[in-house]
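Narrative of activities, Objective 1.

The group set out to show that a structural description can be obtained from nothing but a protein's sequence at a throughput compatible with the screening campaign. Below is one input-output pair from the validation batch, recorded exactly as produced.
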Amino acid sequence: MRLARIPFTIAAAMIAMAAFVMVAPAASASPYPAGCTIQISKVTATVGDQLTVTASGYPSGAVVTFTLHSNPVVLGSATATSGGVATLVFALPVGTAPGLHTITANGVPSGDCDPLVSADLQVDAASVVAPTTVFVAGTLPRTGTNSAELIQLALVLIAVGGLITLATRKRLHRARVES
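Output recorded for this entry:
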């Protein structure tokens, strides 16, 4: 009789774990409800391209410093307007390695704003060898989703399904052996 309870105990534990995984990310999803934001005019660029980076949520008059990371290079600073927006136009520095980089904005926070925000920028490899003509694009909206929570949920559900299938097979096998 005790062995018959094991699959149900395991299933209950897996369901509880799945509930925890689904609830936990939602609790910490937005630590800064009125948080600072950053936007880059292009998500993919080549060396020499003119880019516009805009950070918002800072107090009026705050100096916001923009930095390109992998090897930190300060791109410049801008002062936040009365609306809390700081904008910097810059050329992607020569010598920037191809690949994924991060641009950060750092300034004095306003309210619940995290003073350090970042956005990713992809630098094309072809441009490092032979720069092309400069093209200034409009501001692109940031789209997509962080799918880490969905992947966690999928893995938990697969594990629960596997355990239930295993428990059911063992129960059917025992029933066949006993009869």
